[in-house]
Sequence to fold (492 residues):
Amino acid sequence: MSEPKPETKEAAHSVPEPAEHSAAWGDLAYTVRSEWIVLREKEKPVAEIFSTAYVADDGGEGRPITFVFNGGPGAASAYLHVGAIGPRRIDFPRNGTLPAPPAQLVDNAESWLAFTDLVFVDPVGTGFSRIIESQDEQTKDGKPEKKDPTAFFGLKRDLESLGEFMSRWLSTRGRWGSPVFIAGESYGGFRVGKLARLLPESYGIGLSGAVLISPALEFAPLNPSDYDALPWIDKLPTMAAAAVFHGKSREFEQGTPLDEVLEATERFATTGYVAFLTRGAGLGEEERGAIVGRLADLLGLPVDLVQRAEGRISMAVFARELLRSESAVLGLYDSTVTAHDPFPDREAFEGPDPTLAGIESVYTAGINQQLRQEIGVDTDREYHLLSYEVFNSWKLDIESHAFESNVGATDDLRYGMSLNPHLKVFITHGRYDLVTPFFTTDRIRNLMRLDPDVAARLTVEHYPGGHMFYAWEDSRIAFRRSMGEFYEQALA
Fold:
């Protein structure tokens, strides 16, 4: 009688069964596999990361592999998975507005599967990924050691978990010889910037390319105050573009070419407007009045409103006020999208954001169709499209002095591009996104002090649309075309 085999580490913790099947995207045959990979600390399982991989059947080890994730923090990868990159996508109207329920999946002609295998990753706490709850263990003095249920909801631990996942995936699939790319949206773009340094330094994963989609490269511009200037400057071109789009601009007629609007607004934002914001009461009344007047014309807002705000119009105020006369509110993530204000008589806006809140049911239905019905994932777990528990629990789990509060990914991206002379980077935004405005990246790019050889490996390109500009058909097609060229150049 043979002796029982020792229990393997993976068998020590039970995870849901993976789902796998074969399919075709056009003439390309591929295998799709959805599965959970267990992360460990001190040989004990601590979390499960769920992913879905699309791998070409005849691609071989030399075919590129791209790891894809969204942001939040707290967002699952569904937005890019069934919105832009995967072989199946949600059928949005051409202009990216909300489709009628129920959401329908269609073949995605713009899928990146044409030139790379794809792994869509849901960070811990999102999608079907979970922290593993276990009993508190006894310490040496006999007292229980408390487990932190939010241990993975932090900047550093989140990045480490993604690095560990990628290393494990490459090992189990025998893909260490494949060119590796990473792509992330929003806070996922922040992750990409950080991982450009962390992956080669700590996990030995060399990158061929990195794609940052609507990224938040630095935290500071996300929190404007009365005492700074940059966040207000960065949002102005997007607001001016939205005012023209909705026919409210008093400086440009509706239908004025977008490039013309942006060029003039960016020039004003970095000259007269920056003087107004930085000099404040030190600026003469006549000059102040002229700047406020032009600012109000660009924004399509009443002069007295802009004057009372001292020229600092938040995205929430702009979204509420631009179309107030029509009882409509703009979307923050796509300022071309509008919705009826359910409470126009109330001082504070109490309705939902017509973009992020509006599409939640669309993406939830779309990703569940793809995973459960088309791929065959069998689990009772709820798919967490956007977890506010993760978002509200997020912390800076890095050692720093209280005065060292500047958190960003730009330095890591510069470091990674210097460390790897072959790494190519592509950064992109939607022109109508108020949350992570394109001008922030343009400004930061011009301040990166890149050597000409490094600068030649960085591409910045923007498209009509919002945060998820790929919902616009023309923008999705143009983005896919640029990505095909980017991958070809990165692999040359």
